[in-house]
Inverse folding.
């Protein structure tokens, strides 16, 4: 019996038990679809964060103060003076005091991120206003209670009204709205658009933060980043006497760390989803064993008229591979549809279709068909034709 004939007989067997064949495929469909959707979500999350970091520029350096020192702490004035001394390599320094606070206007309120900073932040982080103005140095020096709102906050509190010149309350204190930030992420909550920028001196008082623990530094060029980082490390070490109390890092280091973390997350998510592929394989083996039992007499007749052990085994293996192959293709369709119509339309994360993972998951489904179809096929092929013919 040739391969083509074995293929036709396998297809005929599958078509004669459509419901059972579909239920057999279901585990594979769910498994392949889950792997593709999980990887798509993980890689979409990675792309979203990576785009945000890259949008800040390659010459951005972050300083994070993690410890405390009994002598003194670095101040915004210290870093501003240091930047002035190294003006050929450093173009700007901006402090950052962040906290989650409630912002109110009239009867409406929203929980958002409050970012206390200085006018240099606009240049360093490429953040600009679409209406009104950004912070001025006078606002910082004289602790003016002014606020620049992100579009997500404007949408929540003002709807169609113009917020410029109006007042909002932050932690019970009245602030005048002087600007609206340019929209970055369609005005979504929990995004760059969901923030309020106020003078750093006011933010320190609001949050009772006596020490500024985060600074953004802009190197003059990407080539100057390493030199600036080295000088910053030396400068901060003189103040803190201990390198473990602060951290200086740039965008490339952040992206490298992010890629390592999200790579691990992708593999873990795919591994968890792949468990359902194993479950699907077990289901295939169980159904194939039932099929062998039901077709015992058929196997006996085929052996009696000359079918070899190899012929019987190939037929059942082809049947298992066809079932898992169709299930794998349907699983790919399900996974891609979840990315397109659930993740994409709901705009949870950017749509990412990983061709290597799609091919890998489909390939694994075929391998599972062979592995879990092997035992039922061997059992069918090993039957004694006389005993098989006696079966009822």
């Amino acid at each position: 019996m040739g391969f083509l004939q074995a293929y036709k007989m396998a297809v005929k067997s599958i078509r004669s038990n459509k419901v059972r064949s579909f239920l057999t495929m279901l585990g594979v469909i769910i498994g392949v679809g889950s792997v593709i959707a999980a990887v798509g979500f993980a890689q979409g999350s990675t792309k979203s964060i990576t785009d945000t970091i890259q949008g800040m520029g390659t010459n951005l350096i972050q300083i994070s103060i993690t410890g405390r020192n009994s002598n003194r702490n670095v101040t915004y004035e210290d870093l501003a003076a240091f930047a002035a001394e190294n003006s050929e390599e450093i173009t700007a320094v901006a402090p950052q005091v962040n906290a989650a606070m409630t912002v109110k206007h009239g009867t409406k309120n929203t929980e958002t991120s409050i970012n206390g900073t200085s006018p240099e932040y606009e240049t360093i982080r490429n953040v600009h206003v679409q209406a009104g103005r950004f912070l001025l140095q006078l606002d910082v020096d004289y602790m003016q209670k002014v606020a620049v709102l992100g579009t997500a906050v404007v949408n929540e509190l003002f709807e169609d009204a113009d917020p410029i010149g109006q007042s909002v309350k932050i932690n019970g204190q009245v602030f005048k709205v002087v600007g609206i930030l340019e929209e970055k992420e369609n005005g979504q909550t929990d995004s760059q658009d969901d923030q309020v920028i106020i003078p750093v001196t006011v933010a320190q008082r609001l949050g009772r933060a006596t020490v500024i623990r985060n600074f953004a530094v802009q190197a003059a060029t990407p080539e100057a980043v390493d030199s600036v980082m080295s000088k910053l490390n030396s400068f901060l070490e003189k103040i803190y006497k201990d390198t473990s109390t602060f951290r200086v890092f740039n965008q490339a280091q952040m992206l490298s760390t992010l890629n390592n973390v999200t790579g691990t997350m992708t593999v873990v998510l795919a591994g968890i989803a792949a468990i359902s592929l194993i479950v699907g394989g077990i289901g295939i083996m169980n159904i194939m064993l039932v099929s062998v039992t039901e077709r015992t007499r058929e196997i006996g007749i085929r052996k009696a008229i000359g079918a070899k052990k190899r012929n019987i085994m190939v037929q059942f293996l082809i049947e298992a591979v066809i079932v898992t192959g169709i299930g794998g293709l349907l699983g790919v369709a399900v996974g891609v549809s979840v990315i397109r119509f659930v993740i994409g339309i709901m705009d949870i994360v950017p749509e990412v279709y990983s061709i290597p993972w799609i091919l890998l998951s489909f390939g694994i489904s075929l391998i599972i068909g062979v592995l879990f179809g092997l035992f039922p096929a061997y059992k069918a092929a090993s039957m004694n034709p006389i005993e098989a013919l006696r079966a009822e």
